[in-house]
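Preliminary data (for renewal application), iron/sulfur cluster complex.
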Amino acid sequence: MKQWIDKLRQERTLRPEEFRQLLTGCDADSLRIINEQAREVSLRHFGNRIYIRGLIEISNCCRNNCYYCGIRKGNPHVARYRLSPESILDCCKQGYALGFRTFVLQGGEDPALTDDRIETIVAAIRRHYPDCAITLSLGEKSREAYERFFHAGANRYLLRHETYDATHYSQLHPAGMSGKQRLQCLQNLKETGYQTGTGIMVGSPGQTVEHLIQDILFIEKLRPEMIGIGPFLPHQDTPFARYSSGTLEQTLLLLSIFRLMYPSALIPSTTALATLTPDGRERGILAGANVVMPNLSPQEERKKYTLYNNKASLGAESAEGIRILQQQLHNIGYEISFSRGDFKTVDS
Ligand code: SF4
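Predicted structure:
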């Protein structure tokens, strides 16, 4: 196994068959080695600094019915909300005072969040906080809409493809949603000029090693600036309620694979990882992640944005818990970077 880890670090890619061996034959010892190698690469490129992004969950309304998602349209148990522009600006104000210089506006594909409305909100944040990065994570939109948001001041866009394989995509999403469309959106985002993020759920129902290899090769081709890797976690009110979570080990393995393939990428240690296991955030960082996204949403709304069971939103997962986060990072030898943390290509 060590030979593939060394080769991946040196050549930043493997043949499909070699990826297959790494994904199927990685025991605890090999996982420790690849996590260490990925950590070294991350330390070399970013030092011991972890970028923070202030996450604002602007709406839990969604027109879609993804089988894995707790806020899917078909879940009648969700108390729906949509933040007003004033409330969003208020979150930014609080975040700015705490030191955040990136705001991530995340939400379902909410029909009431029209392109006009999003454009207006982005422009207002841009006016008030010219030194901050604005990241959007609002799902599939037209190319024109992406361009409008970009010109209004958005810099980055997160849109996980979830799975590259069309059949697997149709196992995770109802008819009417198309993996092809998702991939086209990613292409449009790249061409518009966004720092673009994509990624997958690890261990989603029906996922095979062959799917993961396709995902790795797709990400290699797309070359996104941000890569989001988190475990699948079931939500009680979805068709996938009875499926098991993705594993910590496989999530950490994939995280390290992407760090070795792509030393400059911005890779978060996700809330899903922190939900899966109490020290998940730290484990993600020690496997090569370099970003965390504490929650800046109003406290009364946080529990309503439940994509999966037991989602962490307090303590170090919250913006007001930044001291706890600082302490947790300090305990593993890292510090928060309060810079914007834009993507930069680094050669070595
Ligand atoms: S995953 Fe996104 S698009 Fe799908 S139902 Fe949930 S919020 Fe909507």
